[in-house]
Amino acid sequence: MSAHADLAFPDSTAGLRANAVLNNGYVLPWVGLGVFQIKSDAQTAAVVRTAIEQGYRGIDTASLYGNERGVGEAVRSCGVPREELFVTTKVWNDAMRADKVAEAFEESMRRLGLEYLDLYLLHWPIKGHMVSSWRALETLHRTGRVKAIGVSNYMIAHFEELLPHVEIKPMVNQIEYHPYLQSPALIDYCQTRGIQVQAWSPLMQAGALLRDRTLVEIGARHGKSAAQVVLRWDLQTRVATIPKSADPKRIAENADLFDFALDADEMAAIARLDRGQRCGADPLNFRF
Ligand SMILES: NC(=O)C1=CN([C@@H]2O[C@H](COP(=O)(O)OP(=O)(O)OC[C@H]3O[C@@H](n4cnc5c(N)ncnc54)[C@H](OP(=O)(O)O)[C@@H]3O)[C@@H](O)[C@H]2O)C=CC1
Ligand SMILES: O=C1CO[C@H](CO)[C@@H](O)[C@@H]1O
């Protein structure tokens, strides 16, 4: 079991309102909705509205996903006060240049139609441009229009290159994370430095992981699906998570994580499933 596994975590009474406290004191919902591959703005707006009605407060998009307008429309029209919602977007790799990050940010904000952003991430580590892009994010953060800044797909080697040059430490590292890719050294590296890890493709895009016998059996014991076991495991390893679903029933299922807990044996059994298997690109061999 991971050194950071916590069986009594998070406070179940808070449910989807349970927040991680970032290293600048800003709070991030432990569970949010990912919207990658929801194509049209109209569908994105409908899905995000459904999720917010069901209690979700965090939404994860990116300029790459082409649906920031839909996210913004739902956030503006849903009736929940803006300050109760948490919107993340990301700088895509073609803008990962000191002189382009601010422009990319303004374009995202225009599409979102929001006054401020909760979290802005560098989408991938782009060799030769990590420090200058991070400096541009620091500048944006100082304006107050971005409440938290972070990175995505950063491995230890990337942090070792970046951290000596930062004035503001990244608050978040969003990485591929699920029982088949547990990256214990990276998780430990981030957690001991106060960098909150957030899981992308937490369900491994609904492939073989969700049919894994261990996960299905653990789920059956609790009356839960394998997907719910995986998402609960995220929380108990203190990793925030952003499962994507466009289906109202699965959106609800993925939020129904707060009335059960995995015990030490179950956490240990899940720890044994790690096989270093990715469904996305390897950040150490990523070519843009
Ligand atoms: N920073 C980065 O580089 C990356 C970030 N991301 C972010 O992470 C989010 C999540 O990752 P994503 O790649 O979308 O993959 P997920 O692991 O969240 O899986 C999404 C898939 O699982 C299905 N699904 C959702 N819930 C269930 C369930 N309970 N049971 C069975 N199937 C289910 C969805 O279908 P359906 O919609 O029909 O329910 C969809 O096909 C993205 O949407 C994006 O916001 C993703 C990739 C890279
Ligand atoms: O967020 C993302 C969604 O998926 C893309 C392609 O698989 C990734 O490159 C990207 O990081």
TrEMBL record:
InterPro entries: AKR, Aldo/ket_reductase_CS, NAD(P)_OxRdtase_dom_sf, NADP_OxRdtase_dom
Residues the record marks as site: Lowers pKa of active site Tyr: 90
Keyword Transmembrane: no
PROSITE patterns attached to this UniProt entry: ALDOKETO_REDUCTASE_2, ALDOKETO_REDUCTASE_3
Binding site for substrate: 123
GO molecular function, one term: oxidoreductase activity, acting on the CH-OH group of donors, NAD or NADP as acceptor
Keywords of this entry: NADP, Oxidoreductase
Residues the record marks as active site: 65
Pfam families hit by this protein: Aldo_ket_red
Superkingdom per UniProt: Bacteria
NADP found in the keyword field: yes
NADP-dependent oxidoreductase domain sequence ranges: 34-274
Family indicated by similarity: Belongs to the aldo/keto reductase family.
Protein name as annotated: Aldo/keto reductase
